[in-house]
């Protein structure tokens, strides 16, 4: 599982975010920004995050996310000095799904910053081309074809791969 998420030879000892493959690093960034926020060190990958990232990338092994969240909340609750309950958005969604709360119930207002791929924080650069989205993080490059990309015309060449790009990108 670790070999599928981390760069070769970097998954022993302390697991650092900079050693993740770019796809796994992108998923971890999205999770930290919007799903499982952290107050502490964001440079290390925590062991409970590994199966979640692996599941999102590969679709298996399947595990009950509700159990994982409630187990994590229980651990946080029992930790001395912890004053934050993680996974609050997911828990609220589960409570609504099982009709424990309704949309009319008013909670405490909380500032929420929507996810924007153009502003993912330090260490990320994003470029949008006609047919591709390009991400760069700490020397790793990733190119994804847009969902609404137009088909190439006969004889038309595609945009260059990352290795063929000019040196100013990245």
* Euclidean distance between termini CA atoms: 29 Å
Q: Helices and strands: which structural class?
A: alpha+beta
| Rg over C-alpha atoms, rounded to the nearest angstrom | 19 Å
Tally the beta strands: 3
- Provide a count of the helices: 5
Tell me the major beta sheet: 3 strands, antiparallel
* Helical percentage: 25-40%
- Write the H/E string, N to C: HHHHHEEE
Q: Detail the poorly predicted runs.
A: 164-170
Which outline best applies? globular
State which percent range the strand residues make up.
5-15%
Strand order of the largest sheet: 1-2-3
Mean pLDDT score, rounded?
77
Note down, in words, how this protein is organized.
The protein is an alpha+beta fold and 170 residues long. The protein has helices spanning 2-5, 22-35, 49-58, 65-78, 88-97, and strands at residues 124-128, 132-137, 140-145. A hairpin with a 2-residue loop joins strand 2 (132-137) and strand 3 (140-145). Helix 2 packs across helix 3 (49-58). The protein starts with a helix and ends in a 25-residue tail after the last strand. Mean pLDDT is 77; it is low at 164-170.
């Amino acid at each position: 599982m670790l070999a599928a998420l981390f760069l070769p030879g970097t998954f022993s000892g302390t697991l650092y975010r900079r050693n993740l493959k770019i796809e796994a690093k992108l998923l971890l960034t999205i999770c930290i920004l919007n799903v499982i926020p952290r107050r502490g060190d964001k440079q290390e990958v925590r062991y409970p995050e590994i199966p979640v990232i692996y599941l999102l990338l590969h679709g298996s092994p399947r595990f009950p996310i509700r159990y994982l969240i409630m187990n994590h909340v229980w651990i946080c609750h029992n930790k001395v000095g912890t004053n934050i309950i993680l996974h609050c958005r997911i828990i609220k969604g589960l409570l609504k799904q099982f009709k424990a709360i309704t949309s009319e119930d008013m909670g405490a207002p909380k500032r929420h910053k929507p996810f924007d791929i153009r502003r993912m924080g330090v260490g990320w650069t994003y470029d949008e081309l006609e047919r591709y989205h390009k991400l760069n993080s700490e020397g790793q490059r990733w190119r994804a074809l847009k969902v609404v990309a137009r088909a190439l015309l006969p004889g038309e060449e595609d945009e260059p791969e990352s290795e063929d790009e000019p040196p100013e990108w990245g």
